[in-house]
Amino acid sequence: MKLLSQLRTSSFQLALLYMVVFATSVFILLAFIYWRTAGFMTAQTDETIEAEIAGLAEQYRSGGVNGLITILRERVARDPNAKSIYLLTTDDSVKLAGNLETWPGESHSSETGWINFTLDESVGWNGPERLARARIFEVQGGLRLLVGRDVDDLTNLKKVIEAAINWGMGITLALALLGGFLMSRSTTRRIEVINSTSRRIMNGHLSLRIPTRGTDDDFDQLADNLNRMLDRIVYLMEGIRHVSDNIAHDLRTPLTRLRNQLENTLITVDDDEAREHVGRAVAEADQLLATFNALLRIARLETRGNTADMKPVALDELVADACELYEALSEEKDQEFRQSMQPGVVIDGDRDLLFQMVSNLIDNAIKYTPEQGVIEVNVRRDNADAVFEVRDSGIGIPDDEKDQVFQRFYRVGKSRSLPGNGLGLSLVNAVAEIHQGRIVLTDTYPGDDMPGLTTTVYIPAQRRKSKRQKAIENNTVDGASENGDSRDQ
Length: 489
Known about the structure:
There is one protein chain. By secondary structure, the protein is of the alpha+beta class. It folds into three domains: about 1-155, 2-Layer Sandwich (Beta-Lactamase), CATH 3.30.450; about 220-305, Helix Hairpins (Orthogonal Bundle); about 310-470, 2-Layer Sandwich (Heat Shock Protein 90). The protein is built from nine helices and twelve strands. The strands form three sheets. Strands 2-1-5-4-3 form a five-stranded antiparallel beta sheet. Strands 7-9-10-12-11 form a five-stranded mixed beta sheet, with helices on one face. The chain has a two-stranded antiparallel ribbon with strand order 6-8. It is rod-shaped and about 155 Å long.
């Protein structure tokens, strides 16, 4: 899989494109060299044959047929390796001179008189089969003359050149592919350093910075720019945090005092209408304080990141406690409250934050599900994840708004008439991110007028211990107990 991911990188694809361009250039260059080399050797052979024909024509003009026959016999005798090919016959194919017995097949001939054929038994050749090239022309007096050369060595040389070109192309492609892979691997490593550092920063480690090599290349410049941007973001976040702290110090305490004074006033007021007005004011003050506290908590969670106090938490037990707390609220609305807890689902997390997340989701399900509705709470393990799921038969969330409900103060149109501040799912999302989890929203009953909502939270679970690890831990515990008992005695 790692190799496949390497092949999908843009750097490797760019290297592959460069390899194709480079290989095409090399192929065109080698093809041109082959064409020029093979063409030159073929032309040189043809020129040699033409020169021999010109010499024989001169002998024919000076000595006639007998002189031509004499010179052909002399040349055959002087060339025991038969590099030169001759055949002189009458018009009825009777041999007069030469080192061939019969004419090659006419299928080899061309309009220009040039032919390529094989020296074998069909032409009266006694030696091993070889390739030859020759020219045929008519001699005065009804005679036919063939003059050619053995081109077997030339053909073999062409084959050697072709093989060298093929091997050269193969080696070029292999080296280019290897070079592209190594280059993309080097580039991917540096990109992965940036990506891994960025992921850790997104998880809350805002003090981290992307490392540089000191080469001042493009990647170093990119890393420097990102680091400066992070410094600026941290500076702005610190400013926001200070503002939040100031707000908490300057406004929350007066708001609390105001709420307490209203509550005291509510106790002392005798008039029913005045008591109703003061009671509404107390409720509004409570709503303001709840919104204010939720905002501050979300800000602290996002600033703290995943530096929360992580300890092993039995998710099934935690959710069972939350269900016990909210089951009575569900019974007041005559709702069917179902639970399914797989035991032994353990995660590393902050119990208080997880309880807040679970409570918010169960409270939302009860709040937005009508009377006599159904609510299901499930805890299970799915491969490497612990899964917490809340299913309801309420009003649901439209598909085009499922990605927006995690924004602060965002409320679905159907729920604006119900009490709330639009911060519950923002807080849930912040807690999930701290625990490196993710939230998925789907319809419980797709297509219905009341589609309901299924909220599924995936959080990495603790790795299951092998039997050997459990045995070692049990032995360690037993040994410690025995030592403790001996000391007590």
